[in-house]
Amino acid sequence: MNKKIIYIIGAGRSGTTLLDIILGNNPKLFSAGELNRFPIRNGVCPNIGKETASYKFWEGFKTDFLNRNKDYRLDEINSLINKYEYHAAIFKIALGNKSSKSRERYFDYLRNFFDTLSDRVDKEIIVDSSKYPCRGYFMAQLFKSDIGFIYIKRNPVDVSHSFAKKDLEQPPKNWFMTNLYLFCVNHLCNFVLKKVEKDCKVVRIKYDSLVENPVETLSSIQKELNIDLSNCIEVIKRDDYLFPGLLFDGNRLRMKEKIKLEKKDNSNPRKLSFNDKITMWFNGSWWR
After folding, report:
1. Helix (H, G, I), strand (E, B) or coil at 107
2. If residue 205 lies in a helix (H) or strand (E), which one and from where to where?
3. Is 127 helix (H, G, I), strand (E, B) or coil?
4. Do residues 207 and 14 lie in contact, with contact meaning Cβ atoms separated by under 8 Å?
5. Residues 6+ apart with CB under 8 A from 6
6. Whether 107 contacts 138, CB under 8 Å
7. Enclosing H/E stretch for 18
8. Residues 173, 174, 177, 182: what is their CA dihedral angle, to the nearest 10 degrees?
């Protein structure tokens, strides 16, 4: 593969898709969205019209990818992703990640997937916002210094309120399950990043910083990962629109024609409820 990869890691509802879109508004970066969803979606870009640029791009990619790798079945690949990318895969990582035929098959899939995508885009860097930490660990094992990580975390109270909403594309979670999910996933992110940062560049940011101080935050990413983000920094300085590009999957932002980075309204700060205070206490270890 002749491209670099930026992998965005973090919990759901923490700004991974927004960050992906922002980075994609730079001429050298290809914003790809949640690529781990490719097999489970049967290679079909979901919830958008067949005449859109995103749908057509990923249909062409699917045809090219399967023509190059005629022995692949997406249902088989999906079973490998279930085995190596979801959170239970932490036991494989903790126990030493021994070589096996299934792991080599999984690595072969990742290698061929990104080789095909690399040939189809004219950018220098591919942004993958799949966010799953175990996927990030195995991608680091495979691509080593050719992959960098951005870990984005969001105020747990805000995430808890976001997961309570029922009108969004992703399914809601109740308060208890949200807190358990945030605690486990963010600690898992930190565990994985400690393992990969000896070989890969890692930068940690907060969602609030990205929204409130985007130029400063992007400048930090630019410095830490040694990439040129000057174009998207200028777009934000001018308060111009951001364009979602060709994301395969992600939240509802990818379905918009254009978006603007809107600052959080802090004029009337939310009064923390009892549940909110428990959320902050329970998740304080990773948030602070």
Report:
1. helix
2. strand 202-206
3. strand
4. yes
5. 23, 29, 125, 126, 127, 128, 147, 148, 149, 150, 225, 227
6. yes
7. helix 16-24
8. 60
Cβ neighbour number for residue 36 with a 10 Å cutoff: 20
Average pLDDT, integer, range 232-237: 94
Percent helix, strand, coil in the chain, to 5, is 55, 10, 35
Compute the distance between CA of residue 57 and CA of residue 61 in angstroms, rounded to an integer: 6
CA distances from 38 to 148, 213, 238 (A): 21, 33, 35
The 10s digit of each residue's pLDDT in 110-149 is: 999 999 999 999 999 999 999 999 999 999 999 999 999 9
Architecture, CATH, for domain 4-287:
3-Layer(aba) Sandwich (3.40)
Please give the single-letter amino acid code of residue 102: S
Which residue type occupies 190? N
The pLDDT tens digits of the residues spanning 41-69 come to 999 999 899 999 999 999 999 999 999 99
Distance CA 255, CA 246 (A): 10
Helix (H), strand (E), coil (C) string for 19-68: HHHHHHCCCCEEEEECHHHCCCCCCCCCCCCCCCHHHHHHHHHHHHHHHH
Q: Are 14 and 153 in contact (CB under 8 A)?
A: yes
Q: Whole-prediction pTM value?
A: 0.95
Token pair, residue 248, equals 């395969």
Alpha carbons 194 and 216: distance in angstroms, whole number: 24
The domain ranges of the chain are 4-287
* Secondary element (H or E) of residue 276: helix 274-282
